[in-house]
Amino acid sequence: MKNIQRRRLLQGAAAAAPALFAGTASAACSDPIPPKFDEMHDVVVVGSGFSGLAAALAAKEAGADVVVLEKMAFLGGNSSLSGGMMAVPGSSVQKAQGIDDSPEKLEADMERIGLGLGDPEHIKFVCEHAAEAFEWTKSAMGVEWNPHLTGKGGHSAERCLITTQGTGQGIIVPAVKKLKALGVELRTRAFMEAVLRDADGRVKGVRIREGYTFGKPGSGTVKTVGARRAVVLCCGGFGADVKYRQRLDPKLGAAFLTTNQPGATAQALREASRIGANVIQADWIQCLPSCSPLEKGMGIATHFASISGSLFGFWISTLTGERFVNEFGDRKLCTDAILRIINRGGEALAFSDDDGVKHLETLRPGLFAKMLAAGTVEKFDDAEALARAYKMDVTTLKATVAQYNTDLAKKTDPKFGRRFDRAAKPIGSGPYYVSRMSPKVHHTMGGVATAVTTAVLDVSTDAPIPGLFAAGEFTGGIHGAVRIGACAVMDCLVNGREAGRQAAASPAWS
C-alpha cells in the first residue's frame, strides 16, 4: 500500500509538471517545414477508429476544417473489430433501471485493476465524462445502444452497454455517415510517415504517402498536409507489431496470436518518439483471455466465453473438471490462469446452458448460430457427453455444476470470490455448451504521455508539445497495468472528443 501511495504521489507530481513547465516546450528535433504545404486544414486527425472519429466530429462541431487520414484501405482500425461495449458509470440507462453506480466507483475499479499505475487525474476525467460522451454518441452520431446492461471482469457494477448491432460497427458506421454529411473528408490509404515539428517547438503538419499500400514501404505519393491549429494522433496500439511488442515483452513472439487487425503497428509511435513525445508504460501489453484458438483474430466465440460462460455460467479446466479462476477477474488474472492449464496440456473451457445462450442472444443477436455453425462453440446433451469429449471425470464435472448452483443460491463464492450477475439462474442438467479459450494479444496500455487536456507531452520538458494532441490506445498512463473490458471504448470516445475540442481551440500559427 505504501508503494502504491508513493506511486500516486509521483503521478500527481507528473500531472502538475505541465503547469510548472508551461511555455517552455522546445523541439527535441527540427523538421524542414515546407514553404507551402500541398494542402492545409485547421485540424488533421491521424487514425479513423473510435477516438479519431470522435476527435474529427468534435473539431467539426467547433467550426474547424478537418481531415481524417487512415493508412489502411478501410476505416475503423481495431475499432472495426471491437465488440462495441462501453462502460458508462452513472448512465441514464442505469438510473432508469435503478442501478446504483457512480464515476467514483469506476475510478476505484480502474485504479485497483490497473495496480495503481494509471494516473488518477486521467482516470477521473474519463469516468466523469463517460455519461456525457455516451449521450453525445446518440445525439451527435446517431449511435443506437442496447438497453440491457452487463458487467465485465473487474467491474463492480452492471454499467456496460453494447451497440444494438453488437459490434463496434454500431459506432463507426453512424459516425462516418455523420462526418460525411458535415463535409469532413475521411481519406484511406493515407500513411503518415512523419510528424513535422518546427524549430520553434510547434507541430505544423504531417508528411503522408497518399495511395499507400499496407505492407509496401515506399508506396504512394509523398504529400505534405499542414495543420493550422493542431494534429491529433489517434493511431491505435501496436498489438500486431511482433518485433516491437517482443522487444518489450519477449514472451509475445510470432507464435502468440493477436486480436488486432494487421495495421496495428508501432510506426506512428516510433515517429512520435522521434519528434520528442514521451512514450510511457509501453511494456504493459494485455491479452484477451476468452478468444477461441479455432478463429483468426478476435473472432466471435470470445463473446460466448465472456457473456454466457462468465456471466451466466463458469469456466472449467479439462485437467480437473473444476472451475479454476474468478470468471469476473481482470484480464491478466484470467489470462495467466488459462495459460497455466494450456502449458500443462489441458484445455480451458467456457461453460453454459440454454439460459446463458439466451442472454448472449439478447446482448449480441445472431452470433450464437454462427458460433455453432463454425464449431467454435460445441453443444453436448449432458454432462456425460461433455466429460467423454474432453476426457474429464463425469462425477467431478457434475459436482462442479452442483457447487456453482449452491454458490449462486447463496450469492457467495468462497473458493474464488466471484460475484454473480443479478439475472443468473441455476445451471440445469443440459444441454451444455462450451468454447475453448486461448489468450491473444489484445490491447497495448502504453503510448504517448498526455496532459488531461490530451496535449502530448515533451520527453525533455514534460510540457505540452504545441499543436499536438492524442487520444485512444495511442496514449499511455490511463489504464495502468491492466485495462478493464469496455473501458477502451469509453476512453476513446471521451478523450477523442476532448482532443478534437482542444485541437479546434488551439491558436492558429498561419
Please give a handful of descriptors for the protein shown:
20 strands; five-stranded antiparallel sheet; disordered N terminus; Flavocytochrome C3, Chain A, domain 1; alpha+beta; 15 helices; FAD/NAD(P)-binding domain; eight-stranded mixed sheet; 510 residues; 2 domains; elongated; single chain
Structure, described:
- There is one protein chain.
- With 510 residues, this protein is an alpha+beta fold.
- Helix content is 36%, strand content 20%.
- It contains 15 helices and 20 strands.
- The protein has helices at residues 2-20, 50-61, 92-96, 103-113, 120-141, 169-181, 242-248, 267-274, 301-311, 331-343, 354-363, 367-374, 383-389, 394-410, 487-505, and strands spanning 39-46, 66-69, 85-87, 145-150, 160-163, 185-187, 190-197, 203-210, 221-233, 279-280, 285-288, 314-317, 322-323, 348-353, 378-380, 432-437, 440-444, 447-448, 455-457, 464-470.
